[in-house]
């Protein structure tokens, strides 16, 4: 896991940690953080697959720091592997501590998404689109 002080990947999702997502001590539930990471994985993988994707697996997640009410959760995604129908992403969650103006890594994990057709069967991930040449 990258313990650097800068996020890796593309900022895919930003959201505010609200009181409804916290326990009595003001710490945000880990499941809420995981769900935001899953949403970000789905957004990024669906863009790459140009269609529907579902979460197949989540690996190697450990929470390093708590998220507090009022923090902005920033989720970064990086596609690390594209298989026949699967897309593997490295996902990092960083808390932007509004009161302290610092960005701290909360957790990271590996998410594996699978591309599906309309009837829910795995389909091949299309090849990467060519980037248009700059004029």
From TrEMBL:
It comes from the Bacteria. This is Acyl-CoA thioesterase YciA. One of its GO terms (cellular component) is cytosol. Keywords: Hydrolase. Belongs to the acyl coenzyme A hydrolase family. Its EC number is 3.1.2.-. GO terms for molecular function: long-chain fatty acyl-CoA hydrolase activity. It is an enzyme of class 3 (hydrolase). GO terms for biological process: acyl-CoA metabolic process; fatty acid catabolic process. InterPro entries: Cytosol_ACT, HOTDOG_ACOT, HotDog_dom_sf, Thioestr_dom. Residues 7-119 form the HotDog ACOT-type domain.
């Amino acid at each position: 896991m990258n313990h650097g002080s800068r996020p890796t990947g593309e900022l895919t999702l930003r959201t505010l940690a609200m009181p409804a997502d916290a326990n009595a001590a003001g710490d945000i539930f880990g499941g809420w953080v995981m769900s935001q990471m899953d949403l970000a994985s789905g957004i990024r993988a669906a863009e790459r697959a140009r269609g529907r994707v579902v979460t197949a697996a989540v690996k190697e997640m450990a929470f390093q720091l708590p998220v507090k009410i009022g923090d902005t959760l920033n989720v970064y995604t990086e596609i690390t592997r594209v298989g026949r129908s699967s897309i593997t992403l490295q996902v990092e969650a960083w808390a932007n501590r509004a009161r302290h103006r610092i960005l701290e890594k909360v957790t990271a994990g590996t998410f594996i998404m699978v591309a599906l057709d309309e009837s829910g069967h795995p389909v091949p991930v299309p090849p990467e689109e060519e980037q248009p040449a700059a004029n």
